[in-house]
Amino acid sequence: MTDYLVDNSVWARLATGDPGITARLRRIERAPSDLFVTCPPQVLEFCHSARTPEEHAHYREQISLGFPLEHAPDELLVLDIQAALWNAGLVRAAGSLDILIAGYAIVNDATVLAADHDYEHIAKVSDLRCEFVAPSS
Fold first, then answer.
1. How do residues 104-121 score in pLDDT, each as one tens digit?
2. Would you tell me how many other CB atoms lie within 10 Å of the CB of residue 74?
3. Is 95 within 8 Å of 41 (Cβ atoms)?
4. CATH of domain 3-132
């Protein structure tokens, strides 16, 4: 069983109809033992892309279909990830929200699904499991 924490880079490309992204999400959706999960920073990032109050409400409703993760990372874990990025010369390779999302994934044994490389950088310096889904276009 795999819990997938889907990054906004994937949701944004799904909205454009990217066939590769769509196919990967459908495979997860159809797998009986895989789940879509959420965490507060991921929900905030997803809803932040709304352009109107109505769209925000719609996004909030959509993202609530995922299962909320149970455990939050502690401050030490996320600061250690940030320090490890700095020490590896990956100073700005991932933003604060991405590091928090990675922390949630680590403490909940989830896999981050992303269409950009931020989480691959985090995985180089931590126990994060991530899967890169190459955009079709």
1. 999 999 999 999 999 999
2. 11
3. no
4. 3.40.50.1010
